[in-house]
Amino acid sequence: MRVYAIGDVHGHLGLLEAAHARIRDDGGAGAQVVHVGDLLDRGPDSRGVVEFLMAGQAAGRDWVVVKGNHDRQLPQFLRDPRWIDPCASLREPWLARDTGAAETLASYGIADAERRDLDTVHAEALRKVPVAHARWLDALPGWHLTPLALFVHAGIRPGIDLREQTEDDLTWLRRPFHDDPRDHGVLVVHGHTPVRRATHYGNRVNIDTGAAYGGALTAIRIDADGVWVLDDAGPRRLTPGATDRE
């Protein structure tokens, strides 16, 4: 058995397509691929990312997408442009937080959103963002469990049953998850907190390598022999306590 995963995309369709190509070369077109969320914001083509993934699922690809904290912003904005995410450190709405909202809206043909009247931008977004996209983003699961790994966006609250984990924690949590060395019963694969290179901590693997900030978009394979980072040179083993370059 093997399963693949891709880190935080943040609107970079070209990087996502390249990651899928590496997976296809390694495991074939039928490979199961789990995306750990944060599809939207900061990059130039959030709409293209959503359309690519929706089209793949509609075509029968075994692609799973879990929800990231950025992925819940657009649907919430469409419902209420003044909604404030209760977990965000900056107590302002999505469009005012400088986290990539304007880039996401621009990908839907809504220009200069950060400099225009909020209600006018909201009305335009209701016209231009397909309802199907908002519904798909809303319906993304918070986690995906396989025999090889548990996939979440941000982390899990240690010691809490998976079925009791909240969306806030699954999409936003850092501490105490990062600081907890215990065996969670299964390897946890996540993103959310950018690292320079994919890193294996023994009980978890972080695959957010900063595509949002000009870094790489990491794709990994997990099989009975361990965790492997995929690049143009082929798979490279990722061992606990090491990054993919060590």
UniProtKB/TrEMBL annotation:
GO terms for cellular component: cytoplasm. It holds the Pfam family Metallophos. SUPFAM superfamilies: Metallo-dependent phosphatases. Residues 1-203 form the Calcineurin-like phosphoesterase domain. GO terms for molecular function: bis(5'-nucleosyl)-tetraphosphatase (symmetrical) activity; phosphatase activity. One of its GO terms (biological process) is RNA decapping. PANTHER family: METALLOPHOSPHOESTERASE, ZINC-DEPENDENT ENDOPOLYPHOSPHATASE. This is Serine/threonine protein phosphatase 1. It comes from Paracoccus sanguinis.
